[in-house]
Amino acid sequence: MKVxxxxxxxxxxxxxxxNNNSGELKYKLVHESSxxxxxxxHTSTVVYKILNMKFLRRWETHQLVLGDSTLYxxxxxxxxxxxxPYCSIHDIHALTRWEAGQNCCLRVVLHTxxxxxxxxxxxxRDQWLHSLQWKRAVHRYRKLLCSTNIxxxxxxxxxxxxxxxxxxxxxxxxVYQVPLEIVSDILSQNGDVLDSVVHSDIITTVAPxxxxxxxxxxxxxxxxxxxxxxxxxxxVLAMFTPVIYRILKHNMDFGKNxxxxxxxxxxxxxxxxxxxxxxxxxxxxxxxxGPSSECPHPRVLPNLVAICLASVATYFQDSNSFRVRADxxxxxxxxxxxxxxxxxxxxxxxxxxxxxxxxxxxDWLPALSGMLLPIPFPKVALYHRKLTTSLKYIIRKFADDPxxxxxxxxxxxxxxxAGWLDIFCPVGPACDDDGELFSxxxxxxxxxxxxxxxxxxxxxxxxxxxxxxxxxxxxxxxxEVVCSMLELDILLKPEQEVEVIQVLKSTEEGRIMYDALCxxxxxxxxxxxxxxxxxxxxxxKSTDADVARLFSNGPLGNLESLNLAFTxxxxxxxxxxxxxxxxxxxxxxxxxxxxxxxxxxxEHMLELLSLNLCETxxxxxxxxxxxxxxxxxxxxxxSTPLTTRTCRLLQKTLPNLVSMDTRYTEVLDMGExxxxx
Length: 677
Known about the structure:
Elements: H1 2-10, E1 18-19, E2 25-28, E3 32-41, H2 46-51, E4 60-66, E5 70-73, E6 84-85, E7 89-94, H3 97-100, E8 105-110, E9 113-118, H4 122-145, H5 151-167, E10 170-171, H6 173-190, H7 196-210, H8 217-229, H9 234-250, H10 258-271, H11 277-289, H12 300-315, H13 319-329, H14 339-358, H15 365-371, H16 385-400, H17 404-407, H18 420-423, H19 436-448, H20 452-472, H21 476-487, H22 494-505, H23 508-527, E11 535-537, H24 544-551, E12 561-563, H25 574-577, E13 585-587, H26 595-604, E14 610-612, H27 620-623, E15 634-636, H28 644-653, E16 659-661, E17 673-675
Parallel strand pairs: 2-10, 11-12, 12-13, 13-14, 14-15, 15-16
Antiparallel strand pairs: 1-2, 3-4, 3-9, 4-5, 5-6, 7-8, 8-9, 16-17
Helix pairs in contact: 4-5, 4-6, 5-6, 5-7, 6-8, 7-8, 7-9, 8-10, 9-10, 9-12, 12-14, 14-16, 16-19, 20-21, 21-22, 21-23, 22-23
């Protein structure tokens, strides 16, 4: 026994044996393997008895295959000339030494005799034993379940099959998948004869197998039917939630699995029938997200949002149906309105509520904002008051989020294209708050994003009128926007400049902004007057305050080259540097200059010919903005986080680039200074 225990522990990995949590040995399912065997016939005569004796047995080596219904050999000859149906097997058991005189032997009892299988060790013998027993049992259940339509018998046998599956020593994907396939077959054949009680029993029985396995289309259709017919059933929430979670976690394409999508949709609609539906919705979303601060499964949110958006879009497919619903929203219809239409609207609002709840998780907001850009709803939907009111909750979440990747999603996907900013502006189809949400979005965009000029250039042609309209009634954010339009010379038409000045002068706060702008413009004009040196270098201990003080002491309109290398300046000095009209060469080597300052420079100083960013605090993302400086001929990015991807982008987008220092970066040709003809 000690020897066997030693072999048992040392050969587990070789033969695919594992232990479960309870200490019970688990075996990998044998599908096909080589093994020795011999046949023993019934000893009806003395001659057969002599031939079946141990020393006269004829052993053969066969490549045995455990098929769905038979045990057969790859070389059908000798003892295995014909396949052995599982239904003809009476018993399968391991033989003891004194019973057959053979070690590690397995006996398969047939009606004509016995088949002995000789394994190389006791572990392989037990693996064959449990695999044969499982195959034989599954074949029996399949045959029995597919030949009956009696609900009580179906329930009983399915319960027996699932219990056998959960308690078997065999460990393999097929152990769980095959019973699900059998259940799928009987549901497709007998779904109509099963009542709601049987539905609940089968669902409760099958649910444990679905925690780690995807349900088949037939099972999904069966589950969907139960959700529609018995939405208040306790089974819906308790048993289906883990199944839904697995679907959302692993699904790659609902287009290939439409019944999976339909099941998730029907499950969500069943939650709508709960007594406290909002609590049920919230609990469901929390389960899909998980208890941690970040959802560990990246496919859950895209799959859930795809189902919600598809369901909302379906509501607006029929334009005639929409007109009826619009009448309902405007309260112009009488009490005899079709109840099905009202139900359809409830369906739409259910999925909009799901979208709202996903927006409550900070880690989901970046992905959610991307999925709602470009606007994924038909144009007619944006005039539906209940839909846009629900969406306001989500868009406000975007606008209040400090991350640029989130709040910039309220703009159009491309410059000149409408986004949520346009939809909720005072002249947009969804505005019902006198521009309150619109001004909130504007405030975040102009206060957080450094590339203010580019943003205003993109939205002014579309949103000039609504911004001026709100500025006239004293909206502070819109007053700041029109003042910035005037300061950055965004307005191309003289009449627009006149209108903006009049708007600013029409309110007390606007007059204060305009007077401050005039003072800045006067100082800027004095700074840009001809005079001063062409080249200037600051001492190594200079700070941002020193730069500001220097530029306030006289005109620097002639300054073409500025050397700030090894100083203590930061990105704050960029607000002053962008005022220099003729600056062509800028050296920022070994300073605290970062991405914020670089974004300002690349937006305003479009005449730069050379730029030195060696050993600065810029990142690879910030360096990508250099593609706007089309006149650059010399660029030094030595010892920066430059990547090969960004380097190639700059090579393609900077037509006048002659040299680019990429030493000590991640660029593939590291250590070389790139030169271009």
